[in-house]
């Protein structure tokens, strides 16, 4: 379903990206509208898939997940069976926050959040025991400079 969004929709989306927990009254006030039209627009954008799952952002370090690794994976396997096993392995591991299939020399990049290097090694050993990979390079993030899920509306 293709839905056109206008400037008011973009304001609503920006308000929701800033704080999805704010009330409908607050959103309506911020975008210069009343509650009912704002609610109808939000519902329309949800139905169209523009607005997806709503969740909260947790502070990983405050919860003890102090290590963030970017894992570069090269494989010599590209058949459907291998891909199915690989995707199943990734989806079953909560440590994997993001996974992307890439163009170029590296086949996949993962963002893996764990407590420490030992926890990463446990993750790594489990992954390679399930699926064959040609080469794995893990890069430890020393400092998170910017992280956002907000789109530039």
UniProtKB/TrEMBL annotation:
A GO BP entry: response to amino acid
InterPro entries: AsnC-type_HTH_dom (IPR000485), Dimeric_a/b-barrel (IPR011008), Tscrpt_reg_AsnC-like (IPR019888), Tscrpt_reg_AsnC/Lrp_C (IPR019887), Tscrpt_reg_HTH_AsnC-type_CS (IPR019885), WH-like_DNA-bd_sf (IPR036388), WH_DNA-bd_sf (IPR036390)
Location of the HTH asnC-type domain: 5-66
Domain of life: Bacteria
Pfam families assigned: AsnC_trans_reg, HTH_AsnC-type
GO MF annotations, alphabetized: sequence-specific DNA binding
Keywords tagged on the record: DNA-binding, Transcription, Transcription regulation
GO cellular component: cytosol
SUPFAM superfamilies, sorted: Dimeric alpha+beta barrel (SSF54909), Winged helix' DNA-binding domain (SSF46785)
Protein name, UniProt field: Transcriptional regulator, AsnC family
